[in-house]
Design brief:
The complex is a heterodimer of chains A (about 550) and B (about 450).
Chain A (H helix, E strand, L loop, with lengths): L1 H25 L9 E5 L4 E4 L3 E5 L6 E2 L10 E5 L5 E5 L6 E3 L2 E2 L4 E3 L4 E4 L2 E7 L2 H13 L6 H21 L4 H23 L6 H20 L4 H21 L3 H5 L2 H18 L10 E3 L2 E3 L1 H13 L9 H20 L3 H19 L2 H21 L2 H5 L15 H13 L22 H9 L1 H22 L5 H25 L17 H16 L29
Parallel strand pairs in A: 3-4
Antiparallel strand pairs in A: 1-2, 1-11, 3-5, 5-6, 6-9, 7-8, 7-10, 10-11, 12-13
Helix pairs in contact in A: 1-3, 1-5, 1-16, 3-4, 3-5, 4-5, 4-6, 5-6, 5-16, 5-18, 6-18, 8-9, 8-10, 9-10, 9-11, 9-17, 9-18, 10-11, 11-12, 11-17, 14-15, 15-16, 16-17, 17-18
Chain B lengths: L1 H6 L5 H25 L8 E2 L2 E2 L2 E4 L5 E6 L2 E4 L3 H11 L10 H4 L1 H5 L16 E3 L4 H11 L4 E7 L5 E7 L21 H4 L9 H11 L8 E3 L2 E4 L2 E4 L5 E3 L1 H6 L3 H22 L7 E2 L2 E2 L13 H6 L10 H12 L3 E3 L11 E3 L3 H19 L9 E8 L7 E8 L6 E7 L5 H17 L2
Parallel strand pairs in B: 3-6
Antiparallel strand pairs in B: 1-2, 3-4, 4-5, 7-8, 7-19, 9-12, 10-11, 13-14, 15-16, 17-18, 18-19
Helix pairs in contact in B: 3-6, 6-14, 8-10, 8-13
Classes of the chains: A alpha+beta (about 550), B alpha+beta (about 450).
């Protein structure tokens, strides 16, 4: 009876949590942040609502100066984390004059400075600390409450029900303890967020929901390993808060680009040269008895290397360096026969390259190049094709190439819409079911509704990142967030649809739901980038707020320059 | 920043692709979920090779198969077990038409909402439209001969009887079971046999609809007819007759000449239109396709094809379905073996044609087969004696009861048996007597 009720309550709670988070993430529609103004010759004031603003004749410019003497993309006005502004010519035909002198390179600009773009005269005003505070207060006042606490309470009930299903069907006290640990980490993270005077906790709520579903899978397949899963989650949270905190300072974050690229390549090379082939793919490293997948952490390196501030988007050399780095990464993974992860990096590369260049030619060329590369690879090593031979035909060979897919689909259907209940599934007995076929396990135990909710949860994070990209303070944050969700989306697509025969079966993980230590930690790391693009007032701990009035003057660099 | 804002939309492309694929998956889950869940290697559905739980009954609630905790049991008596083997299925899932193989999802009680969630461990119940009593009567009448009996309720399309021999006891399979010819085949559904003179119903239908003066014609039979360098023969000279006499005496010469006159295209069109060459859907199982090869115009092959020889092949269930249409104003019902599941009708011929065939088949019974041999039955029938190269011909008897209280169409086919009227007609009588409750 009790078990029967949990079958319906879990998806119902999941849906409510998802809807609450969606409402708060996607419907927030408030005044933009304002960091300064340009006063035009006719007296109009144009707000600078990002840290990075393009001045030009094009409609896509942030400050549109509709004069023939102004180039389409004329100049950039940039603010750093410390509140210092610079102006930079973006290769305009008619040049920029600052305080009457022609600009030769990036130059600092202060309130009251006269700027002439081609023939258009403007006066620059930076927002004062008081103005920033007033604006922040106005954004606060106009805001509907986020009510994160209610969502966290609902999620607590969700986690308790998932645990209860296992306990009602004979799971031991260690399972209860592990789920208790998960709740402690959830409330601990929430407490940290509130202590930092931040109210946005939707990204974390969604991520914890997925993680708890993953805990349920682990409780079925290997309950003894739950404590390890808990330790990995704690490590993931540490990484999340570390990266998030690091990203607060844009200047610091952008300097990591080259070191991170180097670290990523180094990791992959070490992996390629030393790793033994485990289960067909050479993508594991063992250090001090703990095996991990370097490619998971390379994802974080990849995003640091790919994200860029606005001023760097106009330099072709920067993009070419990134293309080279991306190509090397994908080739290393292909050499390890880890085609799934190679595909994840490739799709992410496409998104980053397009966001940086805005050029469809880049996208088309990259796709053509990849297609050619794949053709060469298949010609040289025909056996690669055999791995994908069953694609779309799993039921034609259920004991051979379609072995995993047919079992995943059968188990999924066993669960119907509401599942057999946690701990009641049998798909887990098949090798790698709790990673590669985890969607089947979730369908089987929790039902199709909850499994679909898990997919929608990742989609919601992605939509939020895309939406937040427009209001992020820097293109660095916008690109990083979009790249991070692209990694998650591609993994999700390959995992879910590979296991049910709608895509080739490649064996990548479902973010946070699949078991897999490196993946769990790294995905929490990726979430920090999503969090950093969240410019809603006081929402994200990764986004510095104006210092409170009583601490005026002590806020590091936040005062009027 | 505005530039990057619009570029970020590309990152939403994978999300849209995922939504689309998710839609495809959910659609498949809803439409194919039962089949997925009953995959024989799904441990949620099977235990040590047997369905975990569930029951199969006949139309009267008689239990034919019951599984609990992965232990399956069949009917209590051996005759029922042997008679229903091919509709229920064997323990090793070798009988592809068996319900335990084809409808495992219904037996397990799978539904979209709950999947295989079954805390009571009782599974589901599949009620077949089969009548176990008819199955037993048919098996007893067939005896050791290889053959098939198909009975359909022509008002609903429910299959009441689909017996196939040779058969065996699923609780005690003989060691040499594989040596029994086609033992895993339900011949009523999945075999196509040379139809012999039962096929004359097709030639007759084509002639009624294409030759307006058919009933005014005078036919003559000398016992043989020369065609294209060969001969069509009858067992004896039938002399002068009208068309209904020709059907009742099953005159090869008359039907061969009609086939020659109608031509290969028309004959092929009617074989197809009357559903003898098609595969019919019985709850997802396709019946065996029949065969009608259009031979060269004017040839001996075309002549014999009009009398159900040459390359002609017909599945017993398709023949019963044709008889069901004749009985039901020309409209054949969609076939099912699941109780209470009815479908649409398909018009095979006009009501006028059906009425003429009804009269002709009534005449066949009264003049040739003898109504006294079928006491109490409003029988309409046509026999067939098909030469196959085997020692004895395949014996056919197909028809229906013109009786609103007992709306049954049937076909009996027995391999290597002898003449239709002497071998197959008594089997049909035994089954029909059981069906009307005598």
């Amino acid at each position: 009876m009790l078990l029967s009720a949990t079958r319906y309550l879990i998806p119902a709670l999941g849906a409510v949590i998802l809807l609450r988070c969606a409402a708060s993430l996607l419907t927030a529609h408030r005044a933009a942040e304002v960091w300064g103004w340009l006063e035009l010759g006719n007296g109009t004031r144009v707000e600078l609502s990002n840290w990075e603003n393009i001045v030009g004749r094009a409609r896509s410019a942030d400050v549109v100066l509709p004069y023939k003497s102004v180039s389409r993309t004329h100049a950039a006005l940039l603010r750093d984390s410390a509140g210092h502004w610079t102006v930079q010519d973006l290769g305009s035909k008619t040049g920029v004059k600052l305080r009457g002198k022609p600009l030769t390179g990036p130059a600092p600009v202060r309130t009251g400075d006269a700027l002439i773009f081609g023939g258009a005269k403007c006066v620059f005003h930076a927002a004062t600390a008081r103005e920033e505070r007033d604006r922040a207060q106005a954004r606060r006042d106009g805001r509907a409450g986020l009510h994160s606490t209610v969502s966290v309470l609902l999620l607590t009930a969700f986690v308790a029900l998932v645990a209860a299903q296992h306990l009602l069907t004979g799971a031991g006290a260690s399972v209860a303890a592990a789920f208790g640990g998960l709740l402690a980490l959830l409330w601990g993270s929430y407490a940290v967020t509130r202590a930092l005077r931040r109210t946005g906790f939707e990204v974390e709520t969604l991520a914890f929901m997925l993680t708890s579903v993953g805990f349920g899978v682990c409780a079925t397949s290997d309950p003894g390993a739950l404590w390890k899963e808990l330790a990995l989650l704690a490590a993931g949270l540490v990484l999340y808060f570390l990266i998030g905190t690091y990203l607060r300072d844009l200047g610091r974050a952008r300097k990591l680009s080259v070191p991170m690229a180097a670290a990523g390549i180094a990791l992959l090379l070490v992996n390629l040269l030393t790793a033994k082939s485990i289960f067909g793919a050479k993508n594991w490293l063992e250090v001090a008895g703990i095996s991990f997948q370097p490619s998971e952490f390379v994802k974080i390196c990849f995003i640091f290397a790919g994200a860029a501030t606005l001023d760097r988007l106009f330099t072709r050399r920067n993009l070419l360096l990134f293309v080279g780095f991306a190509a090397a990464t994908v080739l290393c993974l292909a050499a390890m026969s880890d085609f799934g992860t190679a595909a994840v990096f490739f799709v992410t590369y496409i998104v980053i390259a397009f966001m940086r260049s805005g050029s469809f030619a880049t996208v088309v060329l990259s796709l053509a190049g990849a297609g050619f590369g794949a053709f060469l690879a298949v010609t040289a090593r025909p056996y690669i094709l055999r791995r994908f031979a069953a694609w779309g035909n799993a039921w034609a060979d259920p004991s051979g190439a379609g072995y995993q897919q047919t079992r995943a689909m059968a188990a999924a259907a066993s669960g119907g819409l509401f599942g057999l209940g946690g701990g009641q599934g049998r798909l887990y007995k098949i090798f790698a079911a709790d990673t590669d076929m985890v969607f089947g396990v979730v369908c089987e135990e929790l039902g199709l509704v909850t499994a679909v909710l898990c997919v929608l949860t990742v989609l919601l994070l992605a939509l939020f990142a895309v939406r937040a990209a427009g209001s992020a303070r820097s293109t660095f944050y916008a690109i990083a967030a979009c790249a991070a969700v692209t990694v998650m989306l591609t993994q999700l697509a390959l995992n879910v649809f590979g296991s049910v025969d709608l895509l080739p079966f490649t064996g990548v993980t479902f973010p946070l739901v699949s078991r897999g230590g490196s993946s769990l930690i790294a995905t929490w790391g990726l979430l920090a980038f999503v969090k950093a693009a969240d410019a809603r007032q006081d929402a994200s701990f990764t986004v510095p707020a104006p210092p409170p009035a009583e601490r005026r003057g002590r806020g590091k660099g936040e005062e009027e320059a | 920043m505005k530039k990057v804002k619009s570029r970020a939309l590309l990152a939403a492309a994978p999300a849209l692709a995922i939504l689309a694929l998710l839609g495809v998956f959910v659609f498949r889950f809803v439409t194919r979920g039962g089949a997925w869940a009953s995959f024989v290697s799904n441990p949620d559905a099977y235990l040590s090779g047997s369905l975990r739980a569930g029951t199969v009954t006949d139309r009267n609630g008689e239990t034919l198969y019951a599984a609990q905790n992965g232990a399956a049991s069949y009917a209590a008596d051996e005759l029922t077990r042997r008679a229903t083997l091919h509709v229920v299925g064997d323990r090793s899932y070798k009988i592809g038409a068996g319900a335990v193989y084809r409808h495992a999802d219904r037996i397990l009680g799978w539904d979209l909402l709950n999947g295989l969630w079954d805390p009571a461990g009782e599974g589901g119940t599949l009620a077949l439209s089969i009548d176990a009593g008819l199955q037993r009567a048919a098996l007893e009448a067939l005896g050791d001969r290889a053959g098939a009996v198909a009975v359909i309720d022509y008002t609903t399309g429910e299959i009441l009887c689909a017996v196939s021999t040779p058969t065996f006891d699923p609780d005690d399979p003989p060691e040499d079971v594989e040596s029994l010819p086609g033992v895993y085949l339900n011949r009523a559904l999945s075999a196509a046999l040379t139809p012999g003179s039962t096929f004359k119903l097709v030639t007759m239908t084509a002639a009624i609809e294409c030759l307006p003066d058919l009933y005014d014609r005078d036919f003559a039979c000398t016992g043989e007819m020369s065609v294209g360098g060969g001969k069509v023969t009858c067992p004896r000279a039938h002399g002068d007759m009208k068309i209904e006499d020709a059907l009742a005496s099953s005159c090869n010469c008359v039907f061969a000449s009609l086939a020659l006159e109608l031509g290969p295209e028309t004959m092929a069109r009617y074989a197809e239109k009357l559903g003898l060459t098609a595969r019919h859907n019985v709850d997802g199982l396709k019946t065996a396709a029949g065969r009608y090869d259009a031979a060269k115009a004017g040839s001996l092959d075309l002549a014999w094809s009009g009398a159900g020889q040459y390359h002609d092949l017909v599945c017993p269930m398709a023949m019963a379905r044709l008889c069901a249409a004749i009985a039901h104003n020309g409209a054949a019902p969609a076939l099912t073996m699941i109780l209470g599941k009815t479908g649409d009708f398909e018009e095979l011929m006009s009501p006028d044609t059906a009425e003429r065939l009804d009269k002709a088949m009534d005449y066949c019974v009264r003049r040739t087969y003898g109504a006294a041999n079928f006491p109490g039955l409003a029988l309409r029938a046509k026999s067939g004696t098909a030469e196959t190269g085997a020692e004895n011909p395949t014996a056919w008897f197909a028809g229906y009861l013109a009786d609103p209280d007992h709306p049954y169409a049937f076909a009996v086919a027995i391999e290597n048996a002898g003449s239709g009227s002497s071998q197959a007609a008594p089997v049909a009588n035994a089954v029909l007597q059981a069906a009307v409750g005598n």
